[in-house]
Amino acid sequence: MNVSRYISQKIEGADAGSFTSSVTKIAIISIAMGLAVMVVSFAILQGFRNEIQSKIFSFGAHLQISRYDTNNSLEVAPIAGPRLLQELRAFPQVKYTQPYAVKTAIIKTPDEVLGVVLKGIDEKGGHSPMRQNLQAGKFITFTDTAASNDILLSRKVADKLRLSVGDEALFYFIQNPPRIRKFKVQGIYQTGLDEFDEVYVIGDIKQVRELNAWPDSLVGGMEVVLRDFKRLDPTADQMYEQLPYDVKIDKITDQYAQLFDWLQLLNRNVVIFLILIIFVAAFNIVATIFIMILERTNMIGILKALGATDNQIRQMFFHRGLSLTFRGILIGNLIGVGFCALQYYFKLIPLDPENYYMDRVPIFWDFKMLFVLNAATAVASMLAILIPTYLIARISPVKAIKFD
């Protein structure tokens, strides 16, 4: 039988109704609420990061590869699609590629006029990530022969032009000679990112090729999705070294640097916040063990007089502290994971898409991070428990027995 653990369990039962019992409850609540806040904070932070990155990647992928051109216009010189695709397949980090081409236009309706950018895409390589942003209607119907007249409007553009699914709109393309095309609104998308929603209309790349008199082998550029976004910088450097000199590589982190800087700033702030929470929880544990030792000073003196060593008595309070810690961790997990589950399935807390790029607080389930948070809380609490237990070695049996 472990004597230290046995005495620790007896102390726990004897503390009921005492001042130590109240302090113990406060320590458990402190650990539980600290861990719950950490679990919820990381789930929401990672949810924000994933949602915003997913929206950006669905529109611009990880890398955009086009012909190097000193022209600052959105419309760049074309590049040979099959050749570029063959060269990209040599990179093991490349997961998915999609050709695209853009064309500036003016949309005219009976009541409104608006300048936009028609972005032509092709789904031969697989379904476009833009499908996840579809809010109403259907996606573009692509054919192997004729160019599709279907387009996707953003919710912002559709509201400005008072267009809905099924309506037709005239597009005026300023070129020599000017061209007019009638497109049908097949669907309405919404990313929540004004950089996209206020500018782009999604259509068939064949329409852009016909307007520019390009053969089927030419594209405006190629969007590349990598297998691991964390490998973005080294993969881009590798492509820069191996692809032809006339190819330009744009990283999504450079194109939308403000958004990614904002996400990084959020991450730093949350880490600082979580360190403070762990510090407060550990401080409460230290204070609780100190109070336990002071209330049990007389008992400590008697145990020492009976031959108990400092280490045995220290283990007794250490087991008591561990019991408090694991109770707090269990309750904290129930509160934190429970809140995340309610928000994930029932979307209880809404957000303003104009300010937060999404309509509800997002939750991301990262069980690896959940384990790390639990382990960090347990380790910090155990280290905190050890600090006050070293006071036991300084307690004299004679003075402790007289202590009242």
Overall shape: elongated
Count the DSSP helices. Answer: 14
The domain tally reads 2
Class by alpha and beta content: alpha+beta
Indicate the percent of residues in helices: 40-55%
Characterize the largest beta sheet: strand count, sense, and whether it forms a barrel: 10 strands, mixed
User: What's the Cα radius of gyration?
Assistant: 32 Å
Low-confidence stretches: none
Measured between the Cα atoms of the first and last residue, the distance is 31 Å
Question: What is the string of helix and strand elements?
Answer: HHEEHEEEEHEEHEHEEHEHHHHHHH
For the secondary structure, the number of strands is 12
Q: What does the oligomeric state look like here?
A: single chain
Average pLDDT taken over every residue:
86
Note the beta-strand portion: 15-25%
Description of the structure:
The chain is an alpha+beta fold. It has two domains: 3-56 and 260-402, no CATH class; 69-244, no CATH class. Helices cover 53% and strands 19% of the residues. It has helices at residues 3-14, 19-60, 81-88, 155-161, 194-197, 205-212, 232-242, 252-255, 257-295, 297-305, 310-346, 353-356, 367-389, 397-402, and strands at residues 63-67, 79-80, 94-108, 113-121, 134-137, 150-154, 168-173, 179-189, 200-204, 218-219, 221-226, 247-251. Strands 1, 3, 4, 5, 6, 7, 8, 9, 11 and 12 form a ten-stranded mixed beta sheet that branches. The protein has a two-stranded antiparallel ribbon with strand order 2-10. A hairpin with a 5-residue loop joins strand 7 (168-173) and strand 8 (179-189). Helix 9 (257-295) runs antiparallel to helix 11. The longest helix has 42 residues, at 19-60. It is elongated. It starts with a helix and ends with a helix. The mean pLDDT is 86. Residues 272-397 form the ABC3 transporter permease C-terminal domain. The chain crosses the membrane at residues 26-48, 270-294, 324-346, 369-393. This is ABC transporter permease. Belongs to the ABC-4 integral membrane protein family. LolC/E subfamily. It comes from Hymenobacter saemangeumensis.
